[in-house]
Design a protein that fits this description.
globular, single chain, six-stranded mixed β-sheet, alpha/beta, seven-stranded mixed β-sheet
Length: 452
């Protein structure tokens, strides 16, 4: 259960993470899972999925906690990101071998059989350690509540952003007096911006990178723009699909136009956007976790939420959240220490935000230190305009929903399927999934509706 190896992208993130940790006075490389407090009388076993820059930042925060709480030993283990992590966590919880504390994407909590594989938080105990409901976005807190109980403690929201090169946009006349990109409020305005930016773009570079052949990114972008149109997924009872294929078609046509009009070049492949951006491409749509990468590359850039091309601000958002994997007879000193550790990291998230994430703990957002962070202070408004996946068991980061409908979005964006046909395909998949049973507990979304 050691930390996974780093690929090129993670290595760049790790470099940024080292810079971030050092800039806040934290040890860049902590002693991690081997750190044993000589006078500790309580141990907290903590599983997480953070590698790259996030991993370095989390290690630094854990080491700061260890220094402040010598009586608590933290044994942290970083597991492989994605499905392997969730599978191992589920097996551990089902077999009564679960750690005291874990991390999940908030969108996956509903499908993780709360009450069976997850234990609820003691909100009174969290309050003792300085964490209260009023310190969080109401929408974010509601997503963490299942069946009237809190099953996840949000650490952040991580969002999809529109990164832009200030040097290129300045040349194109697309920066305002404040040094930021001119406002965009419609699809026509957005394509006008791309048209002007292309004129100022160096030869051999595409105008925008948007991960056009990646099913996860394309799904995330779709969720954002479909939410901007006011699109819905299911009725409140989770018995009917309310997915609007007309609105979906509009979104798919919008995404497709980036390639059809030559702004995104299929020849570069979906994953070349960040590299092209570093080399002078004016735009890339990427997650906020790319902030340390672009900082390390010394790029003159800004970042805003995905443009409100359909009038209503909304950008795709997920959240890393602390959870309590199920333990028979949970309680006692280790449980209290798990609450204390999670509360400490959440309330000290200024360091975490330096890696690009928006802290869930809203008092952090009001601090002078956070307001000085760039470009974080340019996209912090995303906290109030989160476009999230529906709260059903098959949703969540890299979950079944993304795996099933993401390919339909990709096929439309890349031109292998008509947008209207792709929209109808998406609705068929949603209908199938709504009737399917959660393998964790054998219940459909409708049967879990009261809990969701």
């Amino acid at each position: 259960m050691g930390r996974p190896g780093l690929d090129r992208r993670q290595l760049l993130g790790g470099i940024g993470g080292l810079f971030v940790a050092g800039s806040f006075g934290f040890a860049a490389l902590g002693t991690g899972a081997d750190a044993l407090a000589s006078d500790a009388d309580t141990r907290v076993r903590f599983w997480n999925l953070f590698s790259g820059g996030d991993g370095y930042n989390m290690i630094a925060m854990l080491d700061a906690f260890r220094a402040d709480h010598p009586g608590i030993e933290v044994k942290d283990s970083t597991l492989q990101w994605g499905s392997p992590f969730y599978t191992k966590l589920a097996m551990a919880a089902a077999g009564n071998r679960a750690p005291d504390l874990g991390v999940m994407h908030l969108g996956r909590v509903t499908g993780f059989s709360p009450g069976r594989l997850l234990d609820p938080w003691d909100v009174g105990l969290l309050a003792e350690y300085g964490v209260r409901e009023e310190d969080f976005s109401p929408a974010l807190w509601r997503r963490a509540v299942v069946g009237g109980e809190l099953y996840a403690l949000p650490l952040d929201i991580h969002v999809q952003l529109c990164f832009y090169r200030k040097d290129v946009l300045r040349k194109a006349g697309l920066l305002g007096a404040d040094g930021r990109i001119v406002p965009v409020t419609s699809a026509d305005e957005w394509f006008d911006v791309l048209k002007e930016a292309r004129k100022a773009t160096g030869k051999g570079l595409q105008t925008i990178g948007l991960w056009h052949n990646d099913l996860n990114f394309q799904w995330w972008f779709f969720v954002a723009f479909y939410t901007q149109l006011g699109g819905t997924w299911f009725d409140d009872a989770r018995t009917e699909v309310t997915f609007d294929t007309d609105k979906a078609t509009r979104v798919l046509e919008f995404l497709r136009r980036h390639i059809a009009d030559g702004y995104a070049d299929p020849a570069f492949g979906g994953g070349a956007g960040a590299e092209q951006f570093v080399n002078g491409s004016p735009f890339v749509w990427e997650g906020n976790w790319s902030v340390p990468v672009f900082d390390s590359a010394k790029v003159d850039y800004g970042a805003i939420p995905l443009p409100p091309v359909f009038g209503r601000p909304a950008t795709h958002a997920e959240s890393h959240a602390f959870v309590l994997p199920h333990q028979a007879g949970r309680g006692g000193a280790a449980n209290e220490a798990a609450h204390r550790l999670a509360a400490y990291v959440v309330t000290h998230a200024r360091q975490w935000s330096a890696g690009g994430h928006i802290p869930a703990y809203t008092p952090t957002l009001a601090t002078d230190a956070y307001r000085r962070l760039q470009p974080q202070n340019e996209y912090v408004s995303a906290m109030d305009h989160q476009a999230t996946e529906p709260k059903v068991w098959f949703a969540g980061s890299t979950g079944i929903l993304a795996q099933r409908v993401g390919p339909a979005v990709v096929s439309s964006t890349t031109g292998s399927a008509r947008p209207d046909a792709a929209a109808r395909r998406m609705k068929r998949v949603l209908t199938e999934l709504l009737a399917a049973k959660n393998p964790m507990d054998g219940r459909t979304a409708a049967q879990e509706g009261a809990a969701a």
